[in-house]
Amino acid sequence: MMRLKFNLKAVILSLIGLGIGVTAIAQESPKEEDYFKIVRVPAPEGLLLEVGGLTMLPNGSLGVATRRGDVFIVENPTSARPYFRKFASGLHEVLGLVYEEGAFYSVQRGELTKMVDSNSDGKADVFETVASWPLSTHYHEYSFGPKIAADGAFIVTTNVAFGDQEWWRGESRVPYRGWTLKIHRDGTIEPYASGMRSPAGIGILDEEVFYTENQGDYIGSGGLWHLEKGDFSGHPAGLRWAELPNSPVKMTTAQFDKIVDPQKVKNEQGRFNKPENVVDEEFITMYEAKESLPSLKLPAVWLPHGIHGISNSEPLKIPENFLGPFGGQILIGDQGQSKIMRVMLEKINGQYQGASIDFRSNFQSGVLRMAFAPDQSLFVGETNRGWGSAGEANEGLQRLVWNRELPFEMRTVKAKPDGFEIEFTKPINKKSAEDLSSYVVESFIYKYFPVYGSPPVKQMTHEILGVEVSEDGMKVRLAINNLQQYHIHKISLPGVRELNDSHQLVHEDAYYTLNQIPGGEKMVIKPRVVVPSSPEKSTSAVNPKPKVESASKSLASARAIPSELEIKALLSKNTCTACHNATKKQVGPAYVDVAKRKYTAEKIVELIHNPKPENWPDYATPMPPMPQVSKEDAMKIALWINSLSK
What we know:
By secondary structure, the protein is of the alpha+beta class. The strands form 9 sheets. It has an 8-stranded antiparallel sheet, with no helix packed on it. The chain has a 4-stranded antiparallel sheet with strand order 1-28-27-26, with no helix packed on it. A 4-stranded antiparallel sheet has the order 2-3-4-5, with no helix packed on it. A hairpin with a 5-residue loop joins strand 10 (143-148) and strand 11. Helix 9 crosses helix 10. The chain is globular and about 85 Å long.
């Protein structure tokens, strides 16, 4: 076939000369990859990094710890030919690394270890146990850290184990599993907070302690928590040790069960679920539980499961002079979806809250650790062992490099007494921004119960009451109807365009966790101009002609394969894309591989509601039951999956 080459600019000029408008010509808006390039850090052939820790050294070298127990110093890490020097080996599943005054500190399974090269030969020869804590030998008892707190102490978090028959049910088998620990320089361990399930990322942000949590039992979705001494962040397993003499957590298991767990019951598979006679409206949310459990700490920012990750990892503050308009904000990695989100925080009535927005996806493996280089590039350490991830590799060390061009993005989202204020990185087209149809605001939250994860609940679409655009075109203020305290508000801007190029935003959606509604003046809503409709249109609108559909046509419609747009919405709504891709292996099998099994649509529906992990032995992570997916949605998904075999 002959391919015709042409100059787009010349064509547009010709059309203008002919008086033909060019608005109909589709102009593709830039994507995240047009601004932030992912570059592989060349490593020695055969070296499996499975990065568990990253830290920058004062001389510009990079410290890299691996889950296989090695520590490397990478010299000239931003060059085309970095040099990897093994500093230490033989450690046990290192999942954090810091460098301070000539020493590396890392957390192994059950201890905080100091490593020193005392004879200056480039290798560690002194290994000192700073502190240790108990292990039950369960495989899931990971420990994360350290980070250095404002007072110089080390912060460490510990994973819970899982039940032998109920792997999704967290257990704290030995003291201080499911806790955040503060370890002083003399080795004293100070229990700091409890309620952790799988706290894979610790961050010291503006001298305060934060951590990220992963979805699971009691944790409806991942999120970013701000921790203070004595806090309980939601998972009850660690409360087993709350009555020990040095515990700052005052809640007990009995107090928790009285409020949260009366409705738990096991179903026929041995999994915890709600009784059949408990109607959906009777579930409890985390914020409702807090009314009776004051020490329960709500997340500062929920990271919606399947949208902003499925296994959130390290939070890292962007230095003030880095990444242009995003300096001072927070990046959070995700191990399962192999991507990074951007988070902005504000403090309202003494509580942290804020918004999360996608930042960069398509890393080669699960994003676990990050560290900024002096040249403003970002080192990204990756692994997927024990949990599948998007991408073509099982491990990796990559760099994210900004080309210094400014993307058209929401820079910040802030809460107002009647809505939100959005600041942009570039001026906006005022006509598009003043159109109320350019915005969609929805809200939802999660259940707080012992089942693995939660579907979005209490979903609501909010009316846009008014919009104000700043004179410089850098901000809009939205007034919306019926703000929902404690809920996640999805703020979508599909119609807002850049001033000069009519480009869409690189990312159109922000998810704001509204823990507190601020005070202040509300927006003055301008009356809308209503154009009266003709009598004919008015009559038909009030008394529409009934639509009659035959039974056979209705049945055919029910069995119709969803369109690309519809299936995309269904998979997103039911968080299927968190673990599955149409054509690529991810946490779970690709849909094309499911189609090859030649299940009937009815069988796929059954397997969505009650999966059989034994059918897929090559996947490390069993699929949890998805009873929240309606039969109608499940059937549409099943029909679409089977269509892929053609």
